[in-house]
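Aim 2 progress update. The chain analyzed this quarter is reproduced below.
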Amino acid sequence: MKQLLIASLFTLLSTTAIAQDVNPVFPPGPRCLPYEQAMTKLVKEYKETRIFEGMNKNGSALIELFVNEETGTWTIIAKLPNKMACMQEMGKYFNTYEIIPGDDL
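Predicted structure tokens:
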């Protein structure tokens, strides 16, 4: 199971080098947009669906992961209290792995 987890993390991190060509939702620069505008692009234009959300460690942003399972593209955004969405990462080749309860990670 450790190997699957390591492989998935490697895949996620290694795709960031090619991610700039994948999903140009956010403009150049600080890569932030009003949240509603970002959602329109991610959901309607890129057909990505939110599959995860969680508060970051210091509570300053809600981190969301959007995925298009057909194309394999993914986008991670930080939703800020001022209703802005800032892209953290994006890429392609999204995969999921089965987690077996009790399997030693």
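Strands lie at 32-34, 49-55, 62-67, 74-79, 84-91. The two ends are 6 Å apart (CA to CA). These observations will guide the mutagenesis experiments scheduled for the next reporting period.
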